[in-house]
């Protein structure tokens, strides 16, 4: 680990200034990912700006929805009665992530900003365009069983590892940020980026911008929701792939509204808008779910070791929708 | 009886090898190569050497000469052709990726770690080989077997060779086990201290204090008496500490260079590359049987990977030779040398690898024959060892079958796969059998009476987790007739009376009798001391001696009483040292422990995820000294088997010859949610041919046979036969 400066401001503006003025500075909150990356030499910030003292941990009711502070702990959000009542999908996704110990440290903002778990990104002796632009993508022709089937480029086929973000993109959340140029809002679907030619950029945050909160609008998805995470052990493993499903079903078993997103399949949480459309107005049956799953997988493309995702993906979508409908 | 050291361990009071804070202690961090084969052509250590707190940067360019490195391979009694451990910092050659090329020593761990990142190397790279499949054509018979046709690694045959090919009902399949890594909770660590230029003390993670002492005495050309190895507590090992590794040599070199004690603990990443693993192994098994379920022939071949500098062999094919009554049987064991670190035995070792093929094939043949797999095994049950015709010393495997079948609910099993379902989960049942030699070696132990009435026992053996200290305390307490709190059993120090390495399920078999005999010898010594001026003791037998409440008395004569204080006053003290050795019983009997594991699994119809919902492990392991620690060992082995079956897989990117699984996020071991409450059954019948305690050993059979039990259950649930472990969801979806 490289030597670094450490500051602990108490006001958001001071934190923003500290990072905006120094290209080698990074915010640190729970540190559950950044510290690992620093130990491996993958990230080498010269200055850490600890934001844990900023007043950004509240979970509040506001007009039309919930506002979750960027520093709210993953465990606190998952256990919050308002979240559980109004946005149970988010609670399910959070509890599918990491371990209780990590959820007790990790924050909402940090969860969104976690880096990919691609092994080539983590090993500084291997090529990786995300870590070291221009060195190539080790995974493209390498061990790519965990990698993307949607939205990748020949520069990067890594996936975003967050479970929480899959629920948030499905729930039409909005990210509140504050930066040198003042506050602004970013629709969750536009927060993370596809790799394109600049895989080193995970998100559309500008230098010095600090996530302050995530807003989730109230919706009808309080009952028929499910987060299906397929992983190689029962807990504490990143998803081979995951599905966030939310349905609004009327008294005639007709789907009035649907939300569907996948994790572990792309460089960002992957919203499945066309599949949602394929569900609306249809009966909530396995047949409908299969058709929607087929729509969802259109355009998916596999690499040498992740072809299983082309079959597991639609199956997991069906399972998620079935479970959501039965909830 | 609960563990004697349980409280120390859970409160952090137990001291492990990286926790000795010696005065002047320095910290070392290894730098690994980033190529798999070639030569180091340049090393830039200036920045590292100049970094704050750095005391030394040791490389092959400046390392002091390790005298033993030159003599390895020159001893005519130790043929160099079978290789030897990596000689660290000895030359510019790179033999595997992440091979240590430099060691940075600093006054704090953080400074050493930072400076290690500043070392830069240039290489002349050569084409490496890390792919087993591609190197199968170059596989060879181990040197030991080439030199000795009677070696257990040599080709074996009874009846006709490869007779299965002409069998009426036959199968032939290939099975693959990936590289698995031990990953005990405690990382490999050593604190090395030269107490004088020719006197070395190391606090080391090792399974054998004496083996480690011998290795480093040899390396530094010192009398063994000048080397002290201390391993009071070992935080798990699973075979990982059965070998002396390069990082241990490195810390000892560094301590010499900086003339201070040096502590070196590997990172989790380094645990993959330089301290052994269960070797990636390919197997082919052919079997034929009659329509009424009698095996007529088996051929079992295997190719395991080893390093280019050391021939590692293990008993992959041993179980096949003796488990079932097959008149025709052929085994062929081969190695493929790759540009990778040396393997080392990992729990169950080769037998667990071999049992995956054998016990999967048994299930496959039973299915071909439309027979219940347990019934098929019973039809081929052996009442004597088919490998050598000797009677078993004891064998209660049938009792294990019956107990396990009842407990798992085997009667619910359907012959046809896919017949049982619970919601979205397919349910299946499978079994797998394990066996391991009931090995016993010679061992010494000492015993003495201390003021206050405690009996102190000492032995150089180690306790890597099974509860050796607890079992020995219990044996001593039983033999002496004292409460356990009056026994102090000390282990893990090379100065204590000699005992073998803790491995191969042999510790209780070997050390147990030594402790028992030391206690009897102590009784007799005390009787003799008491006999001075006391005729009752002079006439008594040692068996009659009773230690109670500060007095020595006799069971035959309660009036005869001598206070401990009188005995302790006598010149020469009470200490006795005994050696207990196996006799010739191995000539007359085949001695094995046996186990059978029954699994109930659930496989998700859509996602392919597998959950082990029930696991029952039954063992014929002779006398069970301590039910709690023994059951604990069985459960741990079973959970290890779940890892082997469902998730453990160290993956190399062959383009770089480098692991892409480098931590517990990539390399999965079971978490609590993966392990059902494992049910354990012990036959608990003594085998007095092995030793006077009747023990046979538990450690290996706890794991051997678990992976095939799960794989067979997955087949029973889904109809899908997975012959390449681990059974991850991508293989079932």
From TrEMBL, chain A:
Source organism of the structure: Hymenobacter coccineus
Protein name in the entry: FAD-binding molybdopterin dehydrogenase
Species classification: Bacteria, Pseudomonadati, Bacteroidota, Cytophagia, Cytophagales
SUPFAM superfamilies named among the record's database cross-references: CO dehydrogenase flavoprotein C-terminal domain-like, FAD-binding/transporter-associated domain-like
Domain FAD-binding PCMH-type: 1-221
Keywords of the record: FAD, Flavoprotein
A single MF term (Gene Ontology): FAD binding
UniProt xrefs under InterPro entries: CO_DH_flav_C (IPR005107), CO_DH_flav_C_dom_sf (IPR036683), Diverse_Substr_Oxidored (IPR051312), FAD-bd_PCMH (IPR016166), FAD-bd_PCMH-like_sf (IPR036318), FAD-bd_PCMH_sub1 (IPR016167), FAD-bd_PCMH_sub2 (IPR016169), Mopterin_DH_FAD-bd (IPR002346)
């Amino acid at each position: 680990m490289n030597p670094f400066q450490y500051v602990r401001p108490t006001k958001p503006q001071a934190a923003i200034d500290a990072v905006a003025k120094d290209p080698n500075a990074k915010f640190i909150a729970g540190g559950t990912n950044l510290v690992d990356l620093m130990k491996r030499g993958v990230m080498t910030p010269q200055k850490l700006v600890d934001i844990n003292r900023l007043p950004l941990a509240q979970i509040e009711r506001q007009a039309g929805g919930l506002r979750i502070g960027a520093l709210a702990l993953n465990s606190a959000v998952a256990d919050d009665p308002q979240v559980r009542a109004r946005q149970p999908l988010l609670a399910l996704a959070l509890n599918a992530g990491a371990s209780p110990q990590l959820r007790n440290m990790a924050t909402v903002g940090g969860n969104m900003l976690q880096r990919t778990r691609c092994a080539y990104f983590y090993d500084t002796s291997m090529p990786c365009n995300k870590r070291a632009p221009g060195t190539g993508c080790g995974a493209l022709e390498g061990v790519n069983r965990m990698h993307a089937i949607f939205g990748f480029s020949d520069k990067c086929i890594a996936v975003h590892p967050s479970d929480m973000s899959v629920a948030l993109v499905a729930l039409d959340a909005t990210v509140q940020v504050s930066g040198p140029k003042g506050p602004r809002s970013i629709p969750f679907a536009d927060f993370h980026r596809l790799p394109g030619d600049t895989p080193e950029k995970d998100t559309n945050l500008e230098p010095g911008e600090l996530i302050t909160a995530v807003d989730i609008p109230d919706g009808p998805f309080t009952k028929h929701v499910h987060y299906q995470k397929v992983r190689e052990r029962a807990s504490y493993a990143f998803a081979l792939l995951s599905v966030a499903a939310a349905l609004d079903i009327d008294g005639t078993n007709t789907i009035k509204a649907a939300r569907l997103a996948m994790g572990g399949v792309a460089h960002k949480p992957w919203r499945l808008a066309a599949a949602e459309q394929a569900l609306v107005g249809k009966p909530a049956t396995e047949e409908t779910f299969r058709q929607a799953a087929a729509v969802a997988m259109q355009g998916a493309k596999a690499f040498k070791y992740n072809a299983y995702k082309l079959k597991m993906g639609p199956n997991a979508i069906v399972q998620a929708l079935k479970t959501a409908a039965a909830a | 009886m609960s563990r004697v050291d349980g409280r120390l361990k859970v409160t952090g009071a137990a001291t492990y090898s990286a926790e000795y804070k010696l005065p002047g202690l320095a910290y070392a961090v290894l730098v690994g190569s980033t190529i798999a084969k070639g030569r180091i052509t340049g090393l830039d250590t200036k920045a590292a050497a100049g970094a704050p707190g750095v005391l030394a940067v040791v490389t092959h360019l400046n390392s002091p000469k390790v005298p033993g490195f030159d003599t390895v391979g020159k001893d005519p009694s130790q043929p160099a052709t079978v290789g030897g451990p990596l000689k660290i910092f000895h030359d510019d050659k790179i033999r595997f990726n992440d091979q240590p090329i430099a060691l940075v020593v600093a006054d704090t761990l953080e400074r050493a770690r930072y400076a290690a990142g500043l070392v830069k190397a240039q290489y002349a790279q050569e084409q490496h080989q890390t792919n087993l499949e591609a190197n199968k054509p170059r596989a060879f018979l181990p040197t030991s077997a080439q030199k000795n046709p009677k070696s257990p690694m040599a080709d074996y045959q009874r009846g006709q060779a490869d007779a299965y090919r002409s069998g009426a009902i036959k199968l032939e399949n290939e099975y693959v086990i990936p590289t698995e890594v031990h990953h005990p909770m405690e990382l490999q660590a050593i604190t090395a201290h030269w107490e004088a230029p020719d006197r070395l003390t190391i606090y080391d993670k090792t399974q054998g204090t004496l083996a480690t002492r011998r290795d480093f005495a040899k390396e530094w050309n010192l009398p063994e008496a000048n080397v002290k190895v201390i391993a009071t507590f070992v935080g798990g090992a699973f075979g990982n500490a059965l070998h002396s590794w390069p990082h241990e040599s490195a810390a000892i070199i560094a301590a010499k260079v900086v003339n201070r004690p040096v502590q070196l603990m590997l990172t989790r990443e380094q645990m993959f590359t330089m301290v052994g693993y269960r070797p990636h192994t390919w197997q082919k098994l052919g079997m034929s049987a009659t329509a009424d379920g009698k095996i007529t022939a088996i051929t079992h071949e295997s190719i395991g990977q080893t390093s280019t500098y050391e021939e590692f062999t293990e008993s992959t094919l041993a179980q096949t030779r003796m488990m079932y009554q097959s008149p025709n049987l052929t085994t062929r064991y081969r190695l493929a040398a790759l540009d990778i670190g040396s393997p080392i035995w990992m729990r169950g070792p080769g037998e667990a690898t071999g049992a995956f093929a054998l016990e999967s094939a048994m299930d496959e043949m039973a299915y071909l024959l439309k027979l219940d797999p347990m019934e098929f095994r019973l039809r081929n049950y052996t009442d004597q060892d088919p490998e050598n015709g000797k009677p078993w010393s004891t064998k209660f495997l049938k009792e294990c079958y019956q107990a396990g079948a009842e407990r798992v609910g085997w009667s619910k099993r359907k012959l046809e796969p896919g017949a049982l379902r619970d919601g979205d989960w397919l349910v299946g049942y499978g079994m797998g059998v394990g066996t391991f030699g009931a090995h016993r070696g010679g061992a010494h132990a000492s015993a003495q009476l201390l003021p206050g009435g405690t009996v102190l026992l000492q032995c150089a053996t180690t306790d890597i987790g099974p509860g050796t200290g607890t079992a020995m305390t219990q044996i001593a307490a039983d033999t002496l007739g004292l409460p356990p709190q009056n026994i102090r059993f000390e282990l893990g120090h090379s100065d204590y009376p000699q005992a073998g390495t803790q491995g191969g399920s042999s510790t209780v078999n070997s050390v147990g009798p030594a402790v028992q005999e030391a206690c009897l010898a102590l009784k007799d010594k005390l009787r003799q001391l008491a006999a001075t001026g006391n005729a009752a003791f002079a006439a008594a037998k040692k068996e009659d001696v009773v230690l109670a409440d500060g007095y020595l008395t006799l069971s035959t004569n309660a009036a005869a009483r001598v206070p401990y204080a009188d005995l302790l006053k006598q010149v020469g003290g009470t200490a006795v040292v005994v050696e207990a050795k196996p006799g010739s019983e191995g000539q007359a009997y085949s001695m094995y422990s046996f186990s059978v594991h029954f699994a109930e699994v659930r496989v998700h119809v859509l996602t392919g995820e597998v959950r082990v919902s029930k696991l029952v492990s039954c063992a014929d392991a002779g006398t069970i000294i301590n039910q709690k620690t023994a059951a604990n060992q069985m459960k741990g082995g079973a959970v290890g088997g779940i890892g082997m079956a469902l998730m453990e897989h160290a993956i190399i990117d062959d383009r770089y010859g480098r692991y892409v699984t480098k931590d517990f996020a990539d390399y999965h071991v079971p978490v609590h949610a993966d392990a059902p409450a494992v049910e354990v059954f012990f036959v608990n019948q003594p085998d007095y041919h092995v030793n006077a305690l009747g023990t046979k050993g538990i450690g290996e059979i706890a794991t051997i046979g678990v992976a095939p039990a799960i794989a067979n259950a997955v087949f029973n649930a889904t109809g899908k036969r997975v012959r390449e472990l681990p059974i991850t969801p991508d293989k079932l979806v």
